[in-house]
Amino acid sequence: MNSPKIFAGSSNYNLTKLVSQKSKIPLGNIELGSFSDGEIDVWIKDDINNSSVFILQSNSTPVNNHIVELSLIADALKRSGADKITAVIPYFGYSRKEKQNRPGEPISAKVVADLITSSGISKVICLDLHADAIVGFFNVPVIYLSALETLAKRIKKENLKSPVVVAPDVGGVKRARNFASYLNAPLAVIEKHRQVSARDQIEVLSITGELIGDTAIIVDDIISTGGTITESAEVLKKKGVKKIIVCAIHPVFAGYAIKNIEKSPIDKMYVTDSIDQKNLKSKKIEIVSISDLIANCLIQEL
């Protein structure tokens, strides 16, 4: 039986390399390319017959390419004789479509889960899904990790005095409450209400919970365009909060997200490296690595 290896997809090589170093599991020799028409080409160069292997791939931009690439790597490993194939998916794309909001829509997260596991994957390791229900979409065992404690440990180093953890919407209360428990801090929630005037519907944000102290920590799972987070920061600033910190797990940073964050009242933002940020240029944003979290999980799987 050959020794275990980690194969890197093209989405997040830097994180894969860190996980390999910390887990002492060597990187597999894989060649990734594409044909002139955009079709993805995969070649496994190692002898992995009867071995346990890991694939690390985030379903980040370009999302569809990375999902197909993950599936093709899994199929190539299966055809090369791998005994057990575990997909490590730090960021699971399409996770915001875990249910039908209206008739005629797909449940995209379920489709992607089926696509990935049908390629020969025997186990999935994922991180802070947008909805916990997605775990049930996979027909293979799932290990569900959370980066909240990792982010909380980084926040503790700041020695903040009496911070308040804030959920940016009602849907994120459970996540914010868990984060608050790590800091032993109180919780506040920003709620959206619609007020109907004579001509229009106006959306108003209100805060449930007491804003004590000088610092508010907004906790969220995904930052896409940054609209929800920056809007929440504006409300907190108007309420007299002196320092606003954001902790988010998946930095999608779509469109003008970085510009929106730079112009906002946010003082500091901490995000993980679940999505590669090699081109990030912002003094406000700090990357907190989840490599230790994933490495420890892989060690336990061997």
How would you describe this protein?
The protein is of the alpha/beta class. Helices cover 29% and strands 27% of the residues. The protein has 2 domains: 5-146 and 292-301, Rossmann fold (3-Layer(aba) Sandwich), CATH 3.40.50; 148-273, Rossmann fold (3-Layer(aba) Sandwich), CATH 3.40.50.2020. The protein contains 8 helices and 14 strands. The model is unreliable at 198-202 (pLDDT under 50).
Show the helix and strand layout.
Blueprint: E1 5-8, H1 13-23, E2 30-34, E3 40-44, E4 52-56, H2 63-79, E5 84-89, H3 108-117, E6 123-127, E7 142-145, H4 148-156, E8 164-167, H5 173-183, E9 187-196, E10 201-208, E11 215-223, H6 227-238, E12 243-251, H7 257-263, E13 268-272, E14 285-288, H8 291-301
Parallel strand pairs: 1-4, 4-5, 5-6, 6-7, 8-9, 8-11, 11-12, 12-13, 13-14
Antiparallel strand pairs: 2-3, 9-10
Helix pairs in contact: 1-8, 2-3, 4-5
Domain Ribose-phosphate pyrophosphokinase N-terminal: 5-120
GO molecular function: ATP binding; kinase activity; magnesium ion binding; ribose phosphate diphosphokinase activity
Domain Phosphoribosyltransferase: 147-267
